[in-house]
Amino acid sequence: MIRKAKAVWRGTGRDGGGTVSTESGALTGTPYSFRTRFENEKGTNPEELIAAAHAGCFSMTMAFILQGAAYTPTELDVDAAVTIEPEGAGFRISRSALTLRAQVPNLDQATFARMVGDAEKNCPVSKVLNAAITVDATLIST
């Protein structure tokens, strides 16, 4: 399976800008620039897209792990916070912090903790990131 996206950039790094689009159409000509990445201009940036991918991937991986053990989650609410920091002459993504709030009927805390660890290790986005990954997971009683 191959998934595709496209970026088009015009101009210099600081003053230029671009758009990103995805094959599915979820993003179509979405703007990004220095200002959307390092300031607060409307648009997106690579770190935000990675955070969205990580949150989505982790929640789906967790859902499959739960399903495999005959649990059906009511809700898996995942936030991802990706950190970019200076490194040498450039930058690097150093961390992705996941926060999970899970509502899963009849699931005990020990089993939940084991499943969270499995999801973190087996999420394809976690596997591709060369960054520290943390997961703050809470099982909410239903």
From TrEMBL:
<dbReference type="InterPro" id="IPR052707">
    <property type="entry name" value="OsmC_Ohr_Peroxiredoxin"/>
</dbReference>
<dbReference type="InterPro" id="IPR015946">
    <property type="entry name" value="KH_dom-like_a/b"/>
</dbReference>
<dbReference type="InterPro" id="IPR003718">
    <property type="entry name" value="OsmC/Ohr_fam"/>
</dbReference>
<feature type="region of interest" description="Disordered">
    <location>
        <begin position="1"/>
        <end position="26"/>
    </location>
</feature>
<dbReference type="Pfam" id="PF02566">
    <property type="entry name" value="OsmC"/>
</dbReference>
<dbReference type="InterPro" id="IPR036102">
    <property type="entry name" value="OsmC/Ohrsf"/>
</dbReference>
<protein>
    <submittedName>
        <fullName>Peroxiredoxin</fullName>
    </submittedName>
</protein>
<dbReference type="InterPro" id="IPR019904">
    <property type="entry name" value="Peroxiredoxin_OsmC"/>
</dbReference>
